[in-house]
Amino acid sequence: MSLAHNLFYVPPEKITSKEIVIDGEAFHHLKNVLRKKTGATVVISDGAGSVFTTEIISVTRSHMTTQIVDKNIVAHRRNLRCALAFVPIKGARNDYILEKGTELGLNCFFPFISERSVVQRIRHSRLQRFERVAISAMLQSQQYFLPAIQPLATSAAVADIFPQYDRVFVAHPDGHRAVDRSAGSVLLVIGPEGGFDEHEVSLFTDRGARLLSLGVHRLRSETAAIVGVTKILTAYNEL
Amino acid sequence: MSLAHNLFYVPPEKITSKEIVIDGEAFHHLKNVLRKKTGATVVISDGAGSVFTTEIISVTRSHMTTQIVDKNIVAHRRNLRCALAFVPIKGARNDYILEKGTELGLNCFFPFISERSVVQRIRHSRLQRFERVAISAMLQSQQYFLPAIQPLATSAAVADIFPQYDRVFVAHPDGHRAVDRSAGSVLLVIGPEGGFDEHEVSLFTDRGARLLSLGVHRLRSETAAIVGVTKILTAYNEL
Q1: Which residues pair with B66 in a beta bridge?
Q2: In angstroms, rounded to a whole number, what is the distance separating the alpha carbons of residues A231 and A228?
Q3: Distances (CA, A) of B64 to A17, B24, B29, B31, B58
Q4: Complex ipTM, two decimals?
Q5: What is the β-pairing status of strands A81-86 and B148-149?
Q6: φ and ψ of A219, to 5 deg
Q7: Which pLDDT value is given to residue A59?
Q8: CATH classification (class only), B81-235
Q9: B176–A contact, CB cutoff 8 A
Q10: pLDDT, one tens digit for every residue, chain B (239 residues)
């Protein structure tokens, strides 16, 4: 649970047909920072397209309960379902991928280990951090859909996901510059800092992925992620 | 002077026809980290398209002198001359604009104060930091052109720059989605977190700027900067 601009996130499983219980960080912010009391209005997103206008009916030391006054179903702003598979890098630059990808309305993130990965494992706390970053970016950009963050996979497991998307692009310097536009869903695969090795590129192209160039400039992984997504969304008239 | 991947930056004014004197951070890295001694080769960019292969001829406590063995003139990788005017925001998010903009090959940055700017001044140390970030990004992305970083200006002063560019785009939610492509040089103007006020928008459009939409999602300033540049470069077939 996180918050920004008076929109709060509560996961769907904590929402009943009548009431929403708010605890954790959102509770702390509402109670101690915004000093909201019984009777105050709280707007809540479930990260799945529902927006609830609620009224606080009780406040305890650990949580508050709100009553649902109104519920709206919001459509996703992207016509294109767009997901990103990326190789986690060291440090805070991953957060950037999660934050900017969420701002741009991606549906799903697939972190995965590549042959040339520097990072070989992701701690549970890191995945939780990814989720906090995504929640914060969702609320900051006033969206009502929280992208899914999948557990860490292998290159082979990422290739197994390809059939779920109409089109898969793998960022690669030898790729085409044009983005073909005949798809309702797209997966973009971004490699590690040193690039994919040939074996992995073959694995991906054998499974139907197309290589997409992101220009002649050498980009950092996290730059390639946002530039690639922007290039695809631009080609699909989604930006 | 900064460094990455064994390419080093020395500003043009420190380069003579025969020798290059390296001091500061680059000197420290070469001497203490890479332990380069007399006779070793050092590759240097002047940030203006020249690449020098040099050989160390002397090392003192404060600097080293290299002899120029070979000089190459490199063409800019962008056909489009593209610059960014942006409103500095609080904290480290500015660095992101400088870093990603440099990676993407922008020629010039114009930081400026807008009506709704949170930040009203930029310390000299901050501008120096901007330059360090740009140098580092230039070397990291293996480019040989360092973008210029102009001193902090006002909105009115930014409008005075417009005639230097064939086309000026101002990121705005009411703008067109299509990027017209009849230009050899483009300036993109990105507003503060709260957006430009109407007075500023009029100031810009009266001077010939076109409003450009970056989609229905609310983007942070630094996201808008990179998404806007990527959208323009994509439209110009530069990515």
Answers
A1: B20, B56
A2: 5
A3: 73, 10, 11, 9, 6
A4: 0.85
A5: unpaired
A6: -110, 145
A7: 96
A8: alpha beta
A9: no
A10: 344 458 999 999 999 999 999 999 899 999 999 999 999 999 999 999 999 999 999 999 999 999 999 999 999 888 899 999 999 987 789 999 999 999 999 999 999 998 777 677 788 888 899 999 999 999 999 899 999 999 999 999 999 999 999 999 999 999 998 888 888 999 999 998 888 999 999 999 999 999 999 998 889 999 999 999 999 999 998 98
Q: Which residues of A78-107 are buried (b: 16+ CB within 10 A; e: fewer)?
A: bebbbbbbbbbbeeeebbbbbbbbbbbbbb
Model pLDDT, residue B5 = 52
Chain position carrying tokens 């991906």: A204
Element at A45 (helix H, strand E): strand A41-45
Residue A12 vs residues A141, A144, A149, B164: alpha-carbon distances, Å = 20, 12, 16, 53
Condensed to tens digits (0 to 9), the pLDDT of residues A88-145 reads 987 789 999 999 999 999 999 999 998 777 677 788 888 899 999 999 999 999 899 9
**Spatial separation of the C-alpha atoms in residues A166 and A147, rounded to whole Å:** 19
Domain positions in chain A: 3-73, 81-235
The neighbouring-strand residues paired with A111 are A86
Q: What are the start-end ranges of the E strands in chain B?
A: 3-4, 7-9, 19-22, 41-45, 50-59, 64-73, 81-86, 108-113, 148-149, 153-154, 167-176, 185-190, 210-212
Residues 72-131 in B contacting A (C-alpha not used; CB under 8 Å): 77, 96, 100, 103-105
CATH architecture, domain defined by B3-73? Beta Barrel (2.40)
Q: Out of A141, A213, A220, whose CB is closest to B103?
A: A220
Q: Which residues of A touch B96 (CB under 8 A)?
A: 96
Hey, is the C-beta of A226 within 8 angstroms of any chain B C-beta?
Answer: yes
> Is B51 touching A (CB cutoff 8 A)?
no
B217: chain A residues, CB-CB within 8 Å: 77, 103-105, 141, 143
Instruction: Identify the pLDDT of residue B216.
Output: 87
CA B92 to mean position of chain CA atoms: 16
| Rounded (10°) CA dihedral B214, B220, B225, B230 | -50
> What is the rounded CA–CA span in Å between residue A167 and residue A186?
5
Q: Do A217 and B77 touch (CB under 8 A)?
A: yes
**Nearest alpha-carbon partner for A122 in B89, A131, A48:** A131
**CA B61 – CA B178 distance, rounded (Å):** 56
Cβ pair B217:A96 closer than 8 A: no
Q: What local confidence, expressed as pLDDT, does residue B3 receive? A: 41
End-to-end Cα separation, chain B, in angstroms: 29
CA atoms of A20 and A195, how far apart (whole Å)? 46
Residue B168 neighbours by CB distance under 10 Å: 26
Min Cα distance A59 → chain B (Å) is 32
- The residue with tokens 């064994």 is B6
